[in-house]
Amino acid sequence: MATLISKHSSSFAAEMGLKLTHNILRVKNPSELIQFYQNNFGMEHIEISTPPLPYKVNIVGYTKNYDANFNEASNILHPPTLLEFHYDDSSTTPSSFVNCGASQVYWKIGITLHDVDYARKFLQSKRVHVGEASQFEDIGYVCHLKDPNNFCIELLQHDFEQKFKAKTNTSDKQLPKDKFPLGYPCCIGQITLQANDIDKTQRFYQDLLGMKLLSIQELPMFGFTLYFFAWTHENPPKSDIKDATINREWLWKRPYTTIEIRHFHSSRQIPPFRDLKQNEIGFEGIRIMCNDLNMFIGKMKADSIPFEESNGTYGKEIIIRDPDNVPIYVSQNKSER
């Protein structure tokens, strides 16, 4: 039954043109954050016009995506997810940091790129503190840093450490390009959430929203498993989504954003998402867009999924919640309005 539901939901997702478009963060001093992401990561500040709101909105991110050869990718693939910053004057007071951290419902964004060591050296030259880079098991070559508001960023290399070193010793080595601050094009590859009940979470993202489960990465030594979901027509090279030999490096090269879910095997409980109070900063949810918001609402009603209606960054929207209470803001694609 779950497979049938998933196939039906995937068809609905395609009909609706569902896209993972924004990671929503309430911030303080947005100007500092915008400069940080522009100067260090080559993101663009995207001007938008919003309806009257009790907060200001700034959008930053990558407006183009690139394939594994650093050429602009086909428009068939969804563009990477953007960062949506919300700010109001109360955020300038000393404020607590909510929903964010390695033991919270929202952990980080992952920025995928060709050469992590080159990126580290560049960021360190800009006096950005970056942790040591290392090959983490058979997952990837990674390092971590924080932005000026303390949000966590992971740098994740396209290739495992040994494979990358082998590539650099060949004549077709990819050289850095001046037009990219980190030497190579980057992508917001992951939004990492943490879940308490993986069965309910998988049903929500896969069976209700029609996302494709691209990879399951088990780490029993560390007591957790990672699950990666996306709206895409692509399939991993190997049909075994637990494969570590090819699929994982393939996944890190995707020019679009996945939702990464970390689930701990023990009884360890992740505090559910809670709505931010006026003087707090932190993770506020994710935004998806569809071709027809009224049709999407109809499906939620048919599936008895509760939702709230509101007016947000792109006008009329509804809010549904995942099993850990994470808000999913659903807006209509701008071109379909």
From TrEMBL:
InterPro entries: Glyas_Bleomycin-R_OHBP_Dase, Glyas_Fos-R_dOase_dom, VOC_core. Residues 187-333 form the VOC domain. PROSITE patterns: VOC. It comes from the Eukaryota. Signal peptide: none annotated. PANTHER family: LACTOYLGLUTATHIONE LYASE (PTHR10374:SF30), LACTOYLGLUTATHIONE LYASE GLYOXALASE I (PTHR10374). This is VOC domain-containing protein.
